[in-house]
From TrEMBL:
Top-level taxon of origin: Bacteria
InterPro entries assigned to the protein according to its UniProt record, in alphabetical order: FAD-bd (IPR002938), FAD/NAD-bd_sf (IPR036188), HB_mOase (IPR012733), RIFMO-like (IPR050641)
Protein name: 4-hydroxybenzoate 3-monooxygenase
Keyword Ligase (UniProt): no
Keyword list, A-Z: FAD, Flavoprotein, Monooxygenase, Oxidoreductase
Domain FAD-binding, first and last residues per copy: 5-345
Amino acid sequence: MEIVKTKVAIIGSGPAGLLLGQLLYKAGIHHVIIEQRSAEYVASRIRAGILEQVSVDLLEQAGVDQNLKAKGLPHSGIEILTNGKKHRVDLSSLTEGKQVTVYGQTEVTKDLMQAREHAELTSFYEAEQVQVDDFYSKPKVTFHYHGKDYQIECDFIAGCDGYHGVCRASVPEDKIKTFEKVYPFGWLGVLADVPPVADELIYVQSERGFALCSMRSETRSRYYLQVPLTDHVEDWSDERFWEELKRRLDPESREKLVTGVSIEKSIAPLRSFVTEPMRFGQLFLAGDAAHIVPPTGAKGLNLAASDIAYLSSALIEYYHEGSEQGINEYSEKCLQRVWKAERFSWWMTHLLHRFETESEFDHKIKQAELSYILTSQAGQTTLAENYVGLPYEIRPLNNLQPVG
Ligand code: APR
Ligand code: PHB
């Protein structure tokens, strides 16, 4: 058995694990990443693509914002299409100049992996039978890697291993509470090398269900349709997808829509899920391991980033200042922001999707709410403030010496 000693063992090499690794590296705190998939698999997963201003600031702090600054598309507004008419929500003017940036999570992941490779940091990809133990005393991570058994001895374990990961599953049942809401539909997503139908994202509420027109660049579009959970990707030829999207759009967008061959097509279920607390002894959960939001508010990656901002700050405080305050406050601080993002994502989902179970009364109330939001300054501000991201503090990383 190979024994490796480190300060922090990070489980999972998604955006949460990679960003934590990069921030700890910058702060001179030794860590390793253990990931069950291959590096190629991790770098090619297609996910969402909207970064809050604070997430951009955090990536800048981590020193991985070069591509993001060069290729990210800053957006100062979004369109909401309802009753066949588009309404622009001017995010920037409603939030004292804040904006969001369109930049694929796939790219964020690749940038972080590249930085990691450049700094020659230790990652165990394709680790098998990963197990976390003794996190209420002396934490250990064991796994099988390239034909050998490994044991990592560490001060802390960061569970960044997503919704299906091993970390949350290892917590004793009586120490954890979960909250969940499953929605009765999914999103069918298509990625295609065609120019986006509009300069800004269009969130579509229609009688035929929700749709979203998003993008990855000026030549690559990302579109979504609300579909029943019983649908399979094979049911949706490209032609059928484009036809249905057109039906949900307004006449002008329908006319402008450029269709093409899909380069990725998948159906994702929608779920709201929260774990309380987010710390168990020396084990911290972060990102999708701790919570899931439906994609309607574009909060998944951004919430993972804010967890990591709090966790990296807590660990820096612990190692550089000898204080456990950040560690002790981690769960509560995260959960306050998490629940607000959960509320916003649930609300956007509720407002813009068609629910089979809703009565005519429910439907009328929803239309009235949407109309109120889009015609009132206060209503639009509440949407804009949440969409661009609720603020949090980012700890400066200057002048930190490596921790022995
Ligand atoms: N051992 C090691 N690694 C694991 C294990 C395990 N037992 N289980 C899962 N993993 C890995 C997965 O293979 C994946 O690479 O953990 C990683 C988790 O990454 P993500 O699922 O991307 O989660 P996270 O980093 O929290 O990112 C959150 O991803 O799903 C989106 O909407 C979400 O944008 C948000 C972001
Ligand atoms: C995306 O571009 O993939 C995207 C954008 C906004 C969302 C969800 C997904 O709300």
